[in-house]
Amino acid sequence: MKKSSKIILSVLVVVIVLCVVYRLVNRAPSASLESNAQMEEIIESSGCMACHSANPKLPFYAGFPIAGKLVKEDVRLGYRSFDMIPMVEALKKGEKINEVDLAKVEKVIADGTMPLAKYYLVHWGSSLTDTETQMALAWVKSQRAASYPNLLADKQWANEAVRPVQDSVPVDMRKVILGKMLFHDVRLSADNTVSCSSCHGLNTGGVDNKAFSEGVGGQHGGVNAPTVYNALYNFVQFWDGRAATLADQAAGPPLNPVEMACKSFDEICDKLKADAAFSKAFTEVYPDGINEANITNAIQEFERTLLTPNSRFDKYLKGDKTAMNAEEVSGYDLFKKYNCATCHVGENMGGQSYELMGIKADYFADRGTELTVEDNGRYKETKNERDRHRFKVPGLRNIALTAPYFHDATQATLEDAVVAMAKYEVGVNLSQQEVKQIVAFLKTLTGEYEGKLLTNANDSKK
How confident is the model at residue 19, as a pLDDT? Predict the structure, then answer.
């Protein structure tokens, strides 16, 4: 036999052996298993936890000079972008899975980008078969349908990661009326000059369009004020998540020395109690009278009404194909292609997770200015090093009205913000055409409040 023939035969034998091994070790879970059990097996066999957990079990070759360096870098990047432990724990307990986790899993499986090719070249069982892929995607869809039903959307979009904003939610209108009064009441500040609406103007997209809001005595905070519109949908409040509810959030600014600067809520209550008419109206709704808990509860109830439905994007999701033009639809396609819809999910298109600012590149190094306390993000509250520079993902509703952007207000325009997010979160340099299309899409997210399309009062002054 010729040497070349022997080589060919040897290669064929190796391929056959590898195929046999692949068949033996890479078997899809039994179709008779419940979908959660199937997903558990897929996660285990595909080696997801080797990169997406705090204490991964590294493969034997992690100790090799060259391979080990690559493995450890993959683990570092994998964990910083997605900690799968909470999802796996919820899966095993049969609990509700975070919708951001569902979106992330769905995207990488649908794209075929996970598991990494270099991982399953060594671990043959980790690559997903077609059956496993279909099982995993079906699991995501079933979880989303059960936990996050998209009842307002057209059938075509019923399992999208984003949903239309509701027209309303159940509220106590008596509390709403009081809350609205309090939201605009400067008596919540020490010198009677600042109200909630001073920083969260309802005629300016729920913000003040300033880099940092101005409080009592002309003091400025250190973080850009997020919009109050649709804040009901956020899983926590503030960029660093220090408030669990809207009521908790409402309790913060009045006592913040840079914002409203009151010494205590007793100071606020005394001023409100001195107003006989207000005190009477308040006590009719809250029999135990004016106190911190009731004040913040009333403001919370009012903020629950600050929904902005009926954007052109909502109308599109509901089945009106004429609501968005071709450029805007292309922008939405790019929004999903470049992973934006894995973090900007739900009705508010965000506000459901903490994410690292600078997954693919060092945002703060490139910014070139000194780090501030606010740059620490979630770390401020947890002191967990992994949380440094992580922030609650902002909602994108009415985003065209809420410049400047990011927690540090460094991005003056929507175009700037899109370019920066693509670079630092996705690792992509968008073309001018792609930026134009994505921005066009984002402008369709402006909704209505009290039956009128939101506009920005500041724009009319320019």
Answer: 42
> Stretch 370-380: mean pLDDT, rounded?
97
Per-residue CA distances from 36 to 42, 90, 93, 121, 140 (Å): 10, 10, 10, 27, 10
By the 8 A CB rule, do 414 and 402 touch? no
- Catalytically active residues are 259
Distance of CA 324 to CAs 55, 191, 227, 320, Å?
A: 46, 47, 24, 8
State the sign of the Cα–Cα–Cα–Cα dihedral 106, 154, 202, 404.
positive
Structural domains in the chain, sorted by start: 33-148 (no CATH), 173-303 (1.10.760.10), 312-461 (1.10.760.10)
Question: Tell me, what amino acid is at 46?
Answer: S
Integer angstrom CA distances of residue 321 from 314, 316, 326: 11, 5, 10
Residue where the block lists tokens 């003091």: 219
Contacts of residue 198, Cβ cutoff 8 Å, sequence gap at least 6: 186, 208, 213, 214
* Tokens of residue 262, six digits: 């009151």
% pLDDT > 70, the chain? 88
* Of the candidates 341, 359, 356, 338, the residue with the CA atom closest to the CA atom of residue 424: 359
Tokens at residue 442, please? 């984002």
pLDDT higher than threshold 60 for residue 2: no
- Quick check: 116 pLDDT over 70? no
Predicted TM-score (pTM) of this structure: 0.91
CA 15 vs CA 30, 46, 128, 225, 419: distances in Å: 27, 21, 19, 60, 45
